[in-house]
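tool_call: predict_structure(chain=1)
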Amino acid sequence: MNPTKSNGQGVTSTLTAETTYQTNDLNYATAERRRKGQATATALLAPEQLSFLPPPPFCPTWPTKGTLADKALGLLLDGHQFDHPTFERLTGSWCARQPIAELRKLGWPVVTIEVPSPTELVPNRVIGLYRLDSKYIGLALAAKDGSKTNA
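tool_result:
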């Protein structure tokens, strides 16, 4: 038997074994269904929200010459992808995360790819592989060349 409840205005809620409520002929999945891990079609098919606004212009600030951020940017603009062991080998600095964070603060859209790198002590270890998309490399090199010719 399914209990029903009316609010007196023609809206009826029916409680079934599935714990689904019917209101104004619409079915809504309840928190109980979600709690049991049953995905809804809406959750699976939810589209990404698009923006009608143009993306912000690419105009990052260049790091101070000679800094680790400058060295990291040089590697990225040369088309290199690197993780922290590679950064250490090339620059002598063991931490690539701080210069990458500095570049991001300056407006550089550095991409991080998480790469599994397990060790005996940390079997779930993941490290970042850093890169810069080729379109930003081209824009940066064009801006850099343009500033040299205008100087």
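agent: Strands lie at 4-6, 12-14, 21-23, 26-28, 110-116, 126-132. Proceeding to next step.
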